[in-house]
Amino acid sequence: MKVFARKAISLSVALAVGVAPMTPALGAGPTTGGAESVQDWFIAGQRFIADGERLQSDEGRAKNVILFIGDGMGISTVTAARILEGQMHGRTGEENSLSFETLPYVALSKTYSWDQQTPDSAPTMTAMITGYKAREGMLSVNHTTARGECRAAVIASKSLPTILEQAAAMGKDTGIVSTARVTHATPAATYAHTAVRDWEADSNISTCGANPAANPAVVKDIARQLIEVSPKVKASLKVALGGGRTYFLPKTQFDPEYGSTKGRRSDGRDLTAEWVSSRGSDAVYAWNKAQFDAASPATTRYLLGLFEPSHVQYEADRANDPAGEPSLTDMTEKAIRMLEKNRKGFFLHVEAGRIDHAHHAGNAKRALIDTIEFSNAIRKAMELTDPRETLIIVSADHSHVFTIAGYPHRGNPILGLVKEVPMVDGQSAVPAKDTLGLPYTTLGYQNGPGWRNAITSGAARPDLAAVDTTDVNFLQEAAIPLDSETHAGEDVGIWAKGPKAHLVHGSMEQNWIYHVMREAFGKSDDQQGDQQGGNDHNDRD
Prior knowledge:
Elements: H1 11-17, H2 38-54, E1 64-70, H3 75-88, E2 105-110, H4 121-130, H5 152-158, H6 163-169, E3 173-181, H7 185-188, H8 222-227, H9 231-236, E4 237-243, H10 271-277, E5 283-286, H11 289-294, E6 302-306, H12 328-339, E7 346-352, H13 354-360, H14 364-384, E8 390-395, E9 399-400, E10 402-404, E11 419-420, E12 430-431, E13 443-448, H15 454-457, E14 478-481, E15 487-488, E16 492-497, E17 507-509, H16 512-521
Parallel strand pairs: 1-7, 1-8, 2-17, 3-4, 3-7, 4-6, 5-6, 13-14
Antiparallel strand pairs: 2-16, 8-16, 9-15, 10-13, 11-12
Helix pairs in contact: 3-14, 4-16, 12-14, 13-14
């Protein structure tokens, strides 16, 4: 069997793992460039060629597959996070690489859904996890499903098998990790089948009657689907970590961390207690970091961790959480250590869900810090797994209207105002100005809450000269006023390493990511032949 091989440490790998670069790096202050010599650029290029020539495609089967999704992590987000991480370590930043940027196989993913030019997270994750393009707002059901369809029998006939469910059928263990609610679109698509992504608790299914949970003909809400998965998936799903406590708790019960917050369930059920009672004495439910830390992978067979009523804290704010909560890296490590006990292998999905939320808020700093933590979690996964038996795929569900603009000099603080280097050498960088004589930031948004009202500000744009644009609460300017910034429609990146990773190449349809994972695992008896995904007809509604 051929295996992945890279004998030389490339410049990008050296920077990503902290090995000293070829030349001393400059700090992040004003400069006319980096510290490289003329020869350094040529040497780095030759090392890149040597690394490429040493690559060998791995034709073997993957024992394990880990699918990392940075929700909303478009190319501009990757670039800006790369620079910020480098600058946080005292370098100019542009030469830095995030952990997953060192993976050898890279492609572009076309993110449109069956009915959207610019998509949402439900059909995009459905595409990656089932192999089929789907409709807006729907999770792991085919595109012939009617909008708002809530009849359980209809949903069952139109459900698409997910790679998590197929891994379970192969006897592998499975897990999901997210910084969003575990019932949110991206993680939910791995185990739930529904026509409406917002049906996270039974109280959300208003179109199906006053008490849909009491009606067995009505599709189950997403939280209930996580607890009441099929017997094979129930035995397989060993770990689910993220946010969303209130979707599992009854409306009569107070949240354990926030005394004025109650659950969302109308059926009176405490699904966190049911997770434990239905899975045995070695099942654990944790809602704070102390309980999470106490759950030993050696003795815990099933672990449900719900660390916030809704989404978990942004990484920039996590240290201030009252009860404490694990980082994405912590959760990823715990999940791998639990799943690796199965000799048949595992499937794990890890989502950095709050990158997306920070972008919607027009808040670049929180989005970039969460992206850096996402990179940290991927680095930890690479440390804990063998590339000869584990396929790691990193991608995004969609992009955002997030821009890097102007002509800032190299090393200019990525969160700061644009400063340009004059054409005459030896002069200090100076702030760039717009046609009104006002400075502007490198980072911005095409739309969103960062739009500044010209009437109240007294100018077409505010003067940011005395504003700390690096503050964690600063909202970058937006061209079009919206309460929430929107997704974008351009391609996103795919990075891969491990068995069958070479199948990630070129410009790919997003749903082909599923087919790469399926090919890496090999076909079980349940996967033989083409899957039909329910009744294949052309009814639009």
